[in-house]
Amino acid sequence: MTCTEFLAQLDELIDDEATASLRADLEQHLRECEHCEITLNTTRTTIQIYRSHEIYELPEGVRIRLEQAIMAKCRKC
Amino acid sequence: MIQQSGTEEVHPDVLLVERAKQGDVAAFEKLVKQYDRQVFRIANHITQNREDAEDVVQDAFLKAFQKLDQFQGNSKFYTWLVRIAVNESLMRLRKRRTGKMVSIDEDVQTEDGAMPRDLADWSPDPEALYGQSEMAEILKKTIQGLPEGFRVVFVLRDVEGLSTEETADTLGLSVPAVKSRLLRARLQLRERLAKYFRKDGKNGGGK
Fold it and tell me: B63-102, pLDDT tens digit by residue?
C-alpha cells in the first residue's frame, strides 16, 4: 500500500469503519511508515481539539434575549 | 429514551414536537433551549458573523415553529432543524456577498494526492502550548480558511456529531460527497494546525 492509498482511506480508521482485511492492510502500512502514523495521530488530535473547544460560545445574556424574542414571535403566530 | 410498545425507542423530542404541533408553546420552548447553542455555533461557522448568527438562531426557530406540520418525524427533529439553520445561514451569507454565488455545492477540489504534507510530529500536549483564548483564535482562524463546502461538512460531522448520512441528508449531498469532503477537511485542518502544534512548536513559524 502506498502513502496516497493509505491517506485516501484514513477516515476508515478514524471512523472505525474499515473491514477486517482493510484494517489489517492499513495497520501493516502504519507499521512501516512513520509519516502516515504521525498523520493519523495528528488528524485524530485535530478532530478531538475542535470537538472539545467551544469556538463560538453563546453568552448566557444573549441566549436569554434570543429565546425571549423567539418565543414572543411564536406566540404571535 | 422512552420505550414504545416494548421495541422501538422514541426520542424525547418526538413528544415535545407533538405537543408543540398542537399549539403547546412551552413544549417548543424546551426544544429552543435544547438546541439554540448548537444552531448558533453552526450559523457562526457558516456566516462567520456574530450578528448574522444571532439572526439565524431567531429565524431558524421561528421557521421551524411555523413549519412544524411539515415535519414528518422520519428524521430527527435536530437534523431537520439544522437543515433549516444551514439554509438560513447560506441566505445571510449571500446577502452579505451580494453578487457572489454562495453554495455548499461549490466546486471544491476533492482529488487525492498533490497536497503537501507536514511530516513533523506534534507536541504530545498541543493544548498546553497556548492559553485558552489564544487557542480559540488559532482554531477559529484555521477553520475559517477552509472552503465553505469543506467547513460545513466538518462542523456538522465532527463538531456537532451528526452521522455521515444525516450530514448528507441535511446538506442535500450524496454520502460519497460527504465522505470525500470530510477527509479533505480533516487533512487540511491538520495541515494548517501543524505549524502551531508541531514539536518545535512556537518557534516553528506558527506565530
Answer: 999 999 999 877 889 999 999 999 999 999 888 877 555 5
Q: Give dist(CA B35, CA B18) in Å, integer.
A: 17
Closest-CA distance, A47 to chain B, in angstroms, reads 7
Spell out which chain A residues touch chain B, with contact meaning CB-CB distance below 8 angstroms.
4, 7-8, 10-11, 14-15, 35, 38-39, 41-43, 45-47, 49-51, 53-56, 58, 62-63, 66-67, 69-71, 73-75, 77
In terms of C-beta density within 10 A (0-12 exposed, 13-18 middle, 19 or more buried), how is residue B133 classed? exposed
Q: Which domain holds residue A11?
A: 1-54
Q: Cα B38 from chain centroid?
A: 8
Place of cell 469543506: B150
CATH code assigned to B126-204: 1.10.10.10
Interchain CB contacts (distance < 8 Å): A and B? 112
Among B190, B191, B199, B200, most A C-beta atoms within 10 A, so best to mutate, is B190
Give per-residue pLDDT as tens, A41-70: 999 999 999 999 989 999 999 999 999 999
Check: CATH 3.30.470.20 for B2-96?
no
Residue A75 lies in a domain: no
Q: Residue B107: what pLDDT?
A: 43
Cell of B193: 494546525
